[in-house]
Prior knowledge:
Layout: E1 2-5, E2 8-11, H1 14-22, E3 26-31, H2 37-45, E4 49-55, H3 58-68, E5 80-84, E6 98-104, H4 108-115, H5 119-128, E7 129-140, H6 153-166, E8 170-177, H7 186-193, E9 199-205
Parallel strand pairs: 3-4, 3-6, 4-5, 6-7
Antiparallel strand pairs: 1-2, 7-9, 8-9
Helix pairs in contact: 5-6
This protein binds S-adenosylmethionine.
S-adenosylmethionine (SAM) binds at residues 31-34, 55-57, 60, 86-88, 104-110, 185-188.
Amino acid sequence: MEIVTRRGPKQLEAAEFGDLRARYSSTLIDLGTGDGAWPRRFARDFDNCFAVGIDPDRSALREAAKLAERKPARGGAPNALYVAASAESLPPELRESADWLTVYFPWSALLRLILGGDEQIGELLRFLCRPRSRFSVVLNAEAPPDGFEPPTPKSVRESLEAPLTAAAFRITQADWLDPDQAPPSTWAGRLVKGSGRAMISLDATR
Ligand SMILES: C[S@@+](CC[C@H](N)C(=O)[O-])C[C@H]1O[C@@H](n2cnc3c(N)ncnc32)[C@H](O)[C@@H]1O
C-alpha cells in the first residue's frame, strides 16, 4: 500500500505492515486524518500502540509525516504511520487491522455515508476492524451536506444502527459532546472549539 513519508510516497508491503503492527499491543486507525495530528498525539501518549492516519490528501500527509518523523524529544512519534487512501478504496493490507477506528469531522462522501446510514459503513467496519474493536465518530452538527438536515445524536444513532449491527457493532453512546471533551484533532480545535459549534459523538464496540 502507499504510505507517505517526509520524503514522499513509498510502497509498504503487507508483511512489513504486519511486522510493524506486531511490535505494538494495539492499532488505532484514524480515517480522514487530515493533517494527522490526532494519531501523532495518540502515538506519543501511548508508545505501546501503533497509530495509522489515512487520507487521500497526500500533501497533508507529507506534512504529518514530517512532524511524526522528528525525534520524540521534538514532538515526533516513531509509532505513527500515514497511508494515502480513501474510504472507498482501502488497500487490502489494512484488512482487520484496527483495534480502534476513529472518524473525526468527516466531510463530503464519508459524511453522507454516515448520515445516510449507508450499508457501505458496515462493509468498511467489517473490512477494517478486528474482533472486540471500538468505533468512534465525532461530527460537526452544524455543517450537513446538501440534502441532509442538521444531525442530532438521535438521528445519527438511528442512521448508524443498521450498518453497525450488520458489522456486529453495538452502539454504546450517542450524544452531544461538550467542547472540553472534543478529540485532540486539528478540526476540533479550528472549527468547533473556536466557534463553539455543536458536536455529536457516537461510540460503538464489537
Ligand atoms: C474536515 S477534515 C478532518 C480532518 C481530521 N479528521 C481532523 O479532525 O482534524 C476531513 C478530512 O477527510 C478527508 N477525506 C475526504 N474524503 C475522504 C474519503 N473519501 N476518504 C477518506 N478521507 C476523506 C479530507 O481529505 C480531510 O482531510
